[in-house]
Design goal:
single chain; 420 residues; Peroxisomal Thiolase, Chain A, domain 1; two-stranded antiparallel ribbon; binds coenzyme A
Length: 420
Amino acid sequence: MASKGFFSSFDDVWMLDGVRTPMVDYCGALGHISPTDLGIKAARAVLQRAGVSAGHIGSVITGNMAPGDFDQFFLPRHIGLYAGVPVQVPAIMAQRICGTGFELFRQAGEHIQGGACEAALVVGTESMTRNPIAAFDHRTGFKLGAPVGFKDYMWEALKDPAAGINMIQTAENLATKYGITREQVDEFASLSFTRAVAAQQSGFHAGEIVPVVTEKFELEGYQPRGIRLQGKVTEVAQDTHPRISPADVLGKLKSVYPGGVQTGGNSSALVDAAAAAVVASGAYVKDWARAHGKKPLARVVAATAVGVPPEIMGIGPAPAIRLLLERTGLTLDQIGRFEINEAQGAQTIAVERELGLDRNKLNVNGGAIALGHPLAATGVRLTITLARELQRAGLRFGIASACVGGGQGIALLLENPDGI
Ligand SMILES: CC(C)(COP(=O)(O)OP(=O)(O)OC[C@H]1O[C@@H](n2cnc3c(N)ncnc32)[C@H](O)[C@@H]1OP(=O)(O)O)[C@@H](O)C(=O)NCCC(=O)NCCS
């Protein structure tokens, strides 16, 4: 029988806690910090917040897309070591582009379910600023008259050569396919901004943010490293992209492509950030809850990953969510909240229409258009936000999902055991 994609369900796997750095517009106050250091920051913060000893971590699962420094090969290992995880514990980097963060939870679930470890440290980190200006052709030198190959890695990496188009154009394809107008995309984007600003003002987002400060990360017997903020900045504590953006103001922005619906105002913002979570078995959670008098953020129930045609990659969450519902036996009505990454406004509206989602349940604290999309950190951020929103609203089930360049979708089902 042809595969509909991956489905993994987890009997007794929990997210204990999760935190993230602020998401800061690229070329801003976090722009000079490597993704490894942002990741170490988030990893240390989540262990501290959860009250979990780094010595209890049995697997370090990290994600990062763009190389943000020459030591990127060592990113998973350095995040684990400088977070204090014992030297014998292995670390890996997983990659599912914009769905990477969810993939980390999926792998953590499989590690724990399979008995490889009791607790896993999950860290997604991305510096969009530090995307390199790179060349791949010059190892053997520069030939006279031959093209010089240096290009902007971020711009080039958003282009899928199989489909021959970039990610914005995949959203334009969805706009055409689903008859989505520029006005509808701007209206959707405006709501994302309004909700993000409201959630910022109510303190909701601050509840998952760890402020970034100048600090040293020591590791006995090895070189210290750390974060040094620049200029007069002493602390970075807030997301920088959300701002009230009326649809008529967004409507005046130039579309990226002539006649297209996507603009700089209704596409995901480019930001720098890291997010981290601790995922553990039910047995671990029992002892931890008793010792600390705490409750975990959510149960990680199941995950799916599927493929879709590259030229409409943004529709990926629709079949991923359908498969999740089909295999868990839940109905759309039983899902209290959805967090779907807003890679592009038309892309999210296409998913919303395909599934018949209620917008009142979707990205209720704002999405990536307003808050930003730090590729590998996004899925971790969305999972933390979803778990906290389920708790805030007293709801039981929630699904977080993202489309993936190249044509994939990934989705994660969470349960708040106290919800109804
Ligand atoms: C769409 C995209 C190309 C725009 O990049 P950009 O041109 O650098 O965008 P900017 O932030 O400069 O915004 C363009 C303009 O819109 C304005 N703008 C953006 N958001 C706005 C808002 N909320 N309100 C008012 N104006 C806004 C900017 O001020 C800027 O104006 P200017 O040209 O007068 O300076 C880029 O954001 C992008 O590629 N995003 C999607 C990333 C992506 O696809 N990720 C992977 C998913 S698969």
